[in-house]
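Dear U.,

For the methods section draft, I wanted the exact inputs and outputs in one place so we can describe them consistently. I've listed the two proteins in the order they'll appear in the manuscript figures. Please don't edit the C-alpha cell lines directly; just add comments below if something needs changing.

First protein:
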Amino acid sequence: MNLYFRKMSTARFHTIVILMTIVVANVFLTSCNNHSETTDILISLYGRCIAIPNYDVIINNGRIIPGADSSFSNNGKPMLLYYKKLEGCSLCEIGYLYNLDKISADTTYTTLVIVRPTQDIGKVIERIQMQQHGFPIVIDMVGTFEEHNPFIPNDPKYHTFLLDRERQITLVGDPLYNKKMTMLFNNALRMLQ
C-alpha cells in the first residue's frame, strides 16, 4: 500500500486526503439528519481562497494597532483563521478567545482571529485589550470579512478554517470542538508541512 501512495501524484494524493477529510468532518459536524447538506457545504468551501481585507483596528498582545497593514503575512506557514460574529452577549462570547491561547502557541502555523461585534464595540475592544492574547485579533466593525467572502455560510460551525500557504481552505471546523476535530486538524496540518 505504501508503494501505491509513493507512485500517486501529489495532487491526486491531496485530493484523496481532502475528500476523506470532508467525510470525516461531516460525521463530526452534523447529526444524522443533515449529512447531505453539510457535505455539500464542506465541498463548496474546500479549496476556496479566503480574502483577508485591510482593517482599521487590530489588537495584538493587548495593544491597539490603528490603521495597521493587515496583509497578515503567514510567513509561508498555514493559518488557523477564526471568524467570530458576536451576536447576543458580545462580552460573554469573546471569553472563548482564552481557549485559543492553548493552541496558538504552536509555531508551525499562524493564528488570526477576526471578530465582528454587532453591539458594544467599545466594550469589546476594551475587553480584548485586557485579555492580551498572543495572536492578532482584528475588529471587523462593518462586516468587511463577510463582504469579501460571501461564500461562507452564516452558520458559525463553518467559521473556523485551516488555510494553506495560499489561503485556500483545507479544513473547516474548530480544533477545540472535540478530540476528533483536534486529530483532524493535526493531520491536515501535517499534510501542509
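Second protein (the one for the lower panel):
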Amino acid sequence: MVAVRRSGELFPIEEPLDPALTDGEGIARISSVPAGELTICARGARHQEFCEEHVGLVAGGTVSSILRPSPGASIRGQVLLADGSPAAGLRLVAVSNEFPPWPRMHTQAMTDVVGHYQLDGVTPGRNGLLLFAPVSFPFLSEAGYLARDALVVGEMDVQMDIHLKALVPVAVKPCHSSRSGKALNLEVSNAFLTSDGGRIPLTRQEEGHWIGRVEAGVYTAEAHAHSGTTELTGEREVDVRRGAPVVIPVSCKPIPSTPSVPSLVSLTPPNPTGPSSFEFAGHVLLPDGTPATGARIIVFDPDSWNRHPCSQWVPPHRHVRFEGSGVAVRLDNKQREVIAWLDKGLYGGIELSNNQGERVVADIRVKEAGAIVGRVDSLEGFTDFTAPQVLLEHDEHGGPTRSLLTATAADGRFVIAGVPPGEVSVYVAGSTTRKRITVRSGEATDVGYLPPAK
C-alpha cells in the first residue's frame, strides 16, 4: 500500500489510513494529489515503511517513485475488555519509536469479533501500540486507552495479548486564584490528559469542565488558558482508578515571560515585514534548449546561504525531485541562487534579486558535467546529514571536497552531479579505501560499494 502526504506533514494516527493498494505488478496509482512538495511512502505485507521525501509535483503534472521497502515484522494477539469479553472493532496503530524519525506511515489493524488482530509490516525496533475504540466512521474514539510498548527484533512475529482496564469517566476543571484569593475569569483553550502514549483529548462542557473516558492508569492532566492578555497553563499528575467519576482540578498559573537581553551588536538582520518566502517556477533546459527530464532543485533551509558546488562546507539543504522539466518550489527570501541538476551530472543555476513575497518565473539551462553513482552503508532511518559523507579528490585541486550536488537515498544509494570530466578519487570520509574513476560529461559513472570508515 502507498500513501502520500505534503512534505513536513505527519500521517494523522487519529484517523484511519486510506492508502492506495498495489496491483499484481506492484504499481499503485493515486489521483487528485495537490501540487507541491510531497512525501511518498509504502508499506506492505511483511515489509516495513519506506519513503521518498522531497518529491515535487507541478500543477497538472505527474510524478512516479520506485519504493523499496525492507523486510518487516508482525505483531498479533487478542484484545480483551476489562470484563474478559473480546474487544471487537477496536483499531490498533503501530508507530515506530526508532530515531531518527521517518515520516512515520503507520500500520493499522482492526480486531475481529473475537478480539484478534494482526499488525503486518511493522518496523523492527521499539514500537508504540495506540488503541482507538470506534463508535462511528471515521473512527471517532469514544474513549482514550493507554498505549502499549512492543519491541520487535528483526523479522520476528511478536505475540502480544492485551487485557484492557476499566474505562473511567474523568472531568478536568481548570481554575486559578490570585494572591488575594479572588478567582479570575479564565478562557480555557484546551484541556487533555497525556500519558507515555500521547495525548487524549477531552470534550468541553458549558459549565467549564472538560470530560472524557479513559482507561484506568496514571496520567498528567493539562490545561491551557488565558485571562485578558495573560497566558496561563497548568498540569497535575493523577492516578485514575476504577470506580466513581474522577474530577481533576488543575491550577493554572501565568506563563513567565523571558526578559529580552539587549545586544550591542546585531548578529542577524531584522526580520523584514511581509512574507518570508516566495515561489519559484519554470523549466529546466538542456544545453541545446530542449526540455530536461528528472530535474532536481536545491532548496536551502532558512538562514543558510549559497556556496560553490565544490565547497568543503555544505549548508543545510534538500533536493526536490521533479518528473519532467517543469519545477515549482517555495524558497526562503534569503536564497539568491536557484540550482538545478540532473542524475547524469548536468547542472546550472540562475541568480535572483530581492523577490520577497513575489512569484518568480524563469528557466534554468544546465551545462555539461558528469555524475558519480554508488552505494554506502545505509543507517536505519538516516537523513542526508547523518548519512556517510562521500568525498571527491581532483588532482588539480589537491584537497578533498564534498559536493553540494550530492543526494543519498535511505537505502544507501547516492548520486553526485556537477563533476568535471576527468579522473577523480571517490571515498567515504574517514575511510582509507579510495576508488579512482574517470568521469565523462553527460554520463553517470558507477563506483559500486564504498566501504565505511574504520
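Candidate sentences for the figure legend, describing the second protein: The first strand starts at residue 2 and ends at 6. Confidence is low (pLDDT under 50) at residues 136-141, 259-273, 305-311.

Thanks,
Y.
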